[in-house]
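Annex B. Sample input.
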Amino acid sequence: MPDAEDERITAADLEAVLASLAYLLTRSQEHERRTARAGITAARSDVYLLRALAEAEGASRVSDLADRLMVKPSHVTRQIDRLQGQQLVERTQDELDRRARQVAITADGREMLDRLKQANIAGLASALDGVPEPDVAATVSVLRHLVDRYVHRVRTTMLSEDDPLPAGPAAHEAG
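Annex B, continued. Sample output.
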């Protein structure tokens, strides 16, 4: 079993690799080049919103999207305005709460998102050339675990900072 220093080195190495990967995948010029090849004009943050809508398999409220993306609802509202102008999303009335609106990805939005995913997959496939498939599968597994744990930690931190749970039995049930 590794000692504490080995774990710090491993985490530091992973942090450096992830920082480099995040930079390479989200560099503005690279994003613009990939999106231009796919015929897409959406900003990077808009792409994440479209992905969230596509994964939701139906309409979502702005507040639910903001929670999922871990941003403020006003940010999501501005994005939706932009995307609706491009006919990539549509707003509908919430049947349960007539004051609220639902947002869904349109067929054009799905098509655009699929083109971008295909461009991204082609780039990744090229970068992974020569890497054994079991190594790729293990990497995907570790990164999914990392994302799940990180999202859980961020959401827990956001809850404790923005909306502390009341003390008592209900607080323990929620955690």
